[in-house]
Design a protein that fits this description.
By secondary structure, the chain is of the alpha+beta class. Helices cover 30% and strands 26% of the residues. The chain has a seven-stranded antiparallel beta sheet with strand order 4-3-2-1-8-10-9. It has a three-stranded antiparallel beta sheet with strand order 5-7-6. A two-stranded antiparallel sheet has the order 11-12. A hairpin with a 5-residue loop joins β9 and β10. The chain is globular, with a radius of gyration of 17 Å. 20% of the residues are buried.
């Protein structure tokens, strides 16, 4: 299981919880195989990015050798589970997959401000209540797919892309968890 800076993600009419390993649709559980859940979690944690098939396989099956066909089968199972929302997972021919739905992650309500209108109470386990809201994750620039660490433009030398701090932090934490 990969480390994520967030436990709860919301997209469309779904809610994905890493710690509970659940996917809910309008509050009802959606049954997924363990690796299918991991594939979905990896896609949801990287919305808008074109993820190479090799990257997904490395993230989900780390130490195991699996063929690309195995990933294809899990993507197919995900699309069936998402039913009429299967369009959230786009196939980018010759490159990989992209999660296209807008993803919301938890944030402290003070950051969102009192006018956010999306705050809900959540217990912190000690009887106190904390206000939690959901904020969309930033989307990559429209001309950028973040599939390569280099940004190449015709007539210009390649320049390194700088990932967002949360992507960088998640990467460091994943490396430290190995």
């Amino acid at each position: 299981m990969s480390f994520s800076p967030f436990d709860l993600y919301r997209f469309d009419e779904f809610e994905l919880s890493r710690s509970r390993r659940t996917l809910l649709r309008r509050g009802e559980p959606v049954t997924l195989l363990p690796k299918t859940f991991e594939v979905l979690a990896w896609l949801v944690e990287n919305p808008g990015r074109v993820l190479a098939k090799e990257e997904i396989v490395r993230a989900v099956w780390r130490e195991s050798f699996v063929e690309e066909n195995n990933l294809t089968q899990h993507i197919s199972l995900l699309r069936k589970a998402l039913a009429d929302r299967a369009r959230c997972i786009a196939t980018i021919p010759g490159r990989g997959y992209q999660f296209t739905a807008e993803v919301f992650t938890p944030e402290v309500a003070e950051e969102a401000g009192p006018a956010s209108g999306r705050a809900q109470a959540a217990s912190n386990g000690f009887g106190a209540q904390a206000a939690i809201g959901f904020r969309p994750q930033p989307e990559p620039a429209p001309d950028s797919d973040h599939s390569s660490p280099l940004a190449e433009e015709p007539g210009r030398r390649p320049q390194a892309r700088i990932p967002s701090f949360s992507v960088f932090l998640a990467h460091l934490l994943r490396r430290g968890a190995r």
